[in-house]
Amino acid sequence: MVLIANVMHLLSAERNLMFLRLTRQCVPDGGRLLLADFWTDATHTQPAFAALIAGEFLVGTGTTGEVIHEAALINEATVRK
């Protein structure tokens, strides 16, 4: 099991995909990936708690990151064929 927690929001969508692909290469067949982060909708306004955290990230780091919202892209980057 690989846990990636509270990292995705710091990276651009392109860097997130690259990070997930590299992670996939290091995990043996049958391994599992658990992503945990403060996910928002595409407008970055819901759920309210995650939107407030995104505001805090913006103040602290200068970015809210670009979270990948399309499950298909995450699957493409993480699932072995």
Task: Write a structural description.
The protein has 81 residues and is mainly α. The chain has three helices and two strands, in the order E-H-E-H-H. The model has no long low-confidence stretch (mean pLDDT 80). It has helices at residues 13-26, 48-61, 71-78; strands at residues 2-5, 33-36. Helices cover 44% and strands 10% of the residues. It has one domain (2-78). The protein is elongated and about 40 Å long.
Write a brief caption for the model:
This protein is mainly α and 81 residues long. It has three helices and two strands; from the N terminus they run E-H-E-H-H. It has a two-stranded parallel ribbon with strand order 1-2.
Keywords:
81 residues, mainly alpha
Task: Give the helix/strand layout.
Layout lengths: L1 E4 L7 H14 L6 E4 L11 H14 L9 H8 L3
Helix pairs in contact: 1-3
Number of strands: 2
Shape: elongated
Order of helices and strands: EHEHH
Portion in beta strands: 5-15%
Domain tally: 1
Distance linking N and C termini = 19 Å
Structural class, from helix and strand content? mainly alpha
Strand arrangement, major sheet: 1-2
The average pLDDT value, as a whole number, equals 80
Give the biggest beta sheet: 2 strands, parallel
Portion of residues in helices? 40-55%
Distinct helical segment count? 3
- Rg, rounded, reads 13 Å
**Which blocks of ≥5 consecutive residues have pLDDT under 50?**
none
